[in-house]
User: What shape does this take?
Amino acid sequence: MILDQVTDYITGKEIDNVGAEASRQIFEKFLVETKGYAKSDILVDVPLTVQFKGEDYPSVIDLIVNVEDRPFMAITCVAGSIGSYEREILAGARLVYDHIVPFAVSTDARDAIIKDACTGETIGQGLDAIPDHSQARTQLEKIEARPLDPDKRSGEMIIYRSFNLEKVNK
Assistant: This one.
């Protein structure tokens, strides 16, 4: 079986056009052309390995948007219901680095849910609620890097793995 290939908007690499890839390509372009982020601000397929019952489960966060070299948003791009993925990306934002990425976004490139990754509260819905680069810079000035409570780490790993099974080991 030959898979369709597309050129990733951010990296310029040829990738398989499967799953939510079409949504991700639209959203990457939206971040750059509408919201004013530089391509260099956006990391694609950021590795995240969680442990469960003593085993490693490698996965990736679709996109991490940095502002002035600080992680600002962790994003999952989906082909289905964005609400089904908000808890997964919330756990991912809490686990991917040694401090919590402040915002977790679930999107299908037509709609988006934005969560405060520290509190878990939904703080916005819709593409208009995605902060542009200037707004992100202003918001990030007020946010101190916060580590995840070590007592919550294993629970977040279980949640991430449970919601992320289709991406695990890819």
